[in-house]
Design a protein that fits this description.
The complex is a heterodimer of chains A (68) and B (131). With 68 residues, chain A is mainly alpha-helical. Chain A has helices at residues 5-12, 16-23, 27-34, 42-51, 56-59; strands at 2-3, 60-61. Chain B folds into two domains: 1-64; 66-131. Chain B has helices spanning 2-32, 37-64, 67-96, 107-129. Classes of the chains: A mainly alpha (68), B mainly alpha (131). Chain A: This is Transcriptional regulator. Chain A: Keywords: DNA-binding.
């Protein structure tokens, strides 16, 4: 799964620590999500979309290998 | 919220240390001293009580962790449990054909191996998620 968290974060000029604080997770946890090592829950994805004032579809997109 | 997470985390570590501080002396006392049966039973139960409290605090700490850390802990426990179960099965099967070494694989040692396997799982999972 691809994500545009880094891009959205850069638009707001936020560090990982800033975003992590806004959505209530640890900075290491956010790094794991941002690098695609961990796929967040729906709740966390929605929270992220809300703080960026965008939609989950903009933040997360399926990779080709995610299609069976 | 962040403060309560930290407190829950610290409490689980503190109670793990308390458990260790009761388990090791209890093992030493029961091994090197002869007590009456009720006293021996009491000494044997003390580390079990501290371990129960530790497990309670550990579960509480997991419940307030963020989802990435929860996954890391879950995988560490699964790996630790699976490896311990495999070792117990192997020892049982080897015991059936009279190949066993109680000096290295007694019940007491299994507790240490179980902890060791948990930490292996924790290390593997932390590496996997980059936490």
């Amino acid at each position: 799964m691809k994500n545009t968290i880094k891009i959205e974060r850069a638009k707001k000029n936020w560090t990982q620590a800033d975003l992590a604080k806004h959505i209530g997770i640890s900075r290491q946890g956010l790094n794991s999500i941002e690098t695609g090592k961990f796929v967040p829950s729906t709740l966390l994805a929605l929270r992220m979309a809300k703080v960026f004032d965008t939609t989950v579809e903009v933040l997360f997109q399926l990779d080709d290998i995610d299609f069976i | 919220m962040e403060q309560s997470k930290k407190i829950a985390n610290q409490q689980s570590v503190i109670f793990a240390l308390i458990y260790g501080a009761t388990y090791l002396p209890a093992t030493w006392l029961l091994k090197h001293h002869v007590f009456s049966k009720p006293v021996s039973a009491f000494i044997a139960i003390v580390p079990i009580i501290t371990f129960s409290i530790f497990i309670f605090k550990y579960i509480k700490a997991i419940s307030v962790m963020d989802e990435v850390k929860q996954r890391v802990q879950l995988e560490a426990v699964v790996i630790g449990f699976s490896l311990t179960a495999m070792l117990v099965m192997l020892l049982f099967l080897l015991g059936l054909c009279d190949i066993s070494n109680p000096a290295w694989f007694g019940y007491g040692h299994l507790v240490c191996y179980c902890w060791g396997f948990y930490f292996i799982g924790w290390f593997v999972s932390r590496k996997k998620y980059g936490v």
